[in-house]
Design brief:
Length: 360
């Protein structure tokens, strides 16, 4: 009796014993085998089925963990398989990942080239920077950050590694500008003239307001930026878009910087910036008041750009439940990332704080 026939015979005998109404002794006698042999076969089959169920559960768990790896090149899948030390056989894992066991063995025998080792080292840095930058760095900023860390690397290589490892910048919606200029307050001329360069600190400031939706309702953010480094030097968050919203942000900027008289303060024609309280604060500290032209967002493009960056890198990535959640997130974003860490192309790929250290 051949091995295959014996296995099939044993399988059919167990199936009959488990499904028939006849006693197992009667079935064993009819099949010409001992009852103890039949019992042993049943125990063996039950144990086999139990092991197979455990392996199937392991397969499901493994596929959940490696969901993203399945779409990666074979080299990435081979590397994942080499790190697996679970109960599944290597051939079974290879079949799950759509590669051959022969191919895996050939990959493991082949020496790792120096270029590949360098790519692996770069990927450790890239993944760390990607997480630190809140998934906001594309190829140019990522390259400059790597160079700042002392790594010699080019834009094309960084782009390839990010593309192969599915490291992408989170893309979001466009920014919508809203300014309420329907008021009777006087309007000041545009002293800035879209010249966003500044020779030193506290020479040109810009200010603006934006809005953020939460499940508790709208919340409004007012900011003040210094155009020398484009750093956020004052900001305030409130539930109403009043003159006090903008005034508090300016007061915080003044307390931080103590600007000399003659600093240009530029904002749009919104009622908050044209209010009597705001004007008095500007006058008391000797600011030269500048305002954007009507319906021209380009006159305050730097501040608009900050709002776009803030929303793209933080606010549009999730739904916000409470205003407090938004305030905590913005505080962390500005104080922990945007001002001290984020690299900016306008500053020769430096952060605001690094750029200001060399300020005149």
């Amino acid at each position: 009796m051949g091995r295959v026939y014996k296995a099939e015979f044993r399988h059919e005998a167990v199936r009959l014993a488990l499904s028939s109404v006849l006693s197992r002794e009667r079935i064993a006698r009819d099949l010409g085998i001992g009852s103890s042999t039949l019992k042993k076969w049943i125990r063996y089959e039950n144990e086999r089925l139990r092991r197979e169920n455990l392996l199937l559960q392991e397969e499901r768990e493994l596929l959940k963990k490696a969901n993203t790896v399945l779409r990666e090149p074979k080299v990435v899948r081979f590397a994942f398989i080499s790190r697996y030390n679970g109960p599944l056989s290597r051939k079974r894992v290879c079949r799950l990942f759509g590669v051959s066991d022969r191919g895996f063995r050939a990959w493991r025998r082949s020496p790792v080239c120096a270029r590949k080792r360098q790519d692996d080292i770069l990927m450790v840095h890239i993944r760390a920077i990607h997480a630190q930058s809140r998934r906001s760095y594309g190829r140019p900023r990522m390259t400059e950050e790597l160079r700042a860390a002392g790594l010699s690397v080019g834009h094309r290589r960084v782009g390839r590694l990010m593309r192969e490892n599915a490291i992408r910048v989170v893309r979001t919606r466009r920014f919508k500008v809203t300014t309420n200029s329907s008021h009777k307050h006087s309007i000041e001329p545009n002293l800035l003239g879209q010249d966003f360069s500044a020779p030193a600190l506290n020479q040109k400031w810009t200010a603006d307001i934006t809005y953020i939706w939460t499940c508790e309702g709208w919340v409004y953010l007012a900011v003040v930026l210094d155009l020398f480094s484009r750093r956020v030097i004052g900001w305030n968050l409130e539930v109403r878009m009043t003159a006090g919203l903008a005034t508090t942000a300016l007061q915080r900027a003044i307390a931080l910087r103590q600007p000399p008289p003659g600093c240009i303060h530029h904002a749009d024609r919104g009622s908050q910036y044209c209010s009597e309280a705001y004007r008095k604060l500007l006058s008391a500290h000797g600011f030269l008041v500048s305002m954007s032209r009507k319906e021209n967002c380009w006159d305050n493009a730097v501040t608009e750009s900050f709002f776009k960056t803030l929303k793209a890198e933080l606010l549009w990535r999730q739904a916000w439940m409470t205003r407090q959640d938004v305030e905590q997130a913005i505080t962390s974003y500005i104080n922990d990332f945007y001002n001290p860490q984020r690299l900016h192309s306008a500053l020769q790929w430096k952060s605001f704080l690094d750029y200001e250290r060399n300020a005149p």
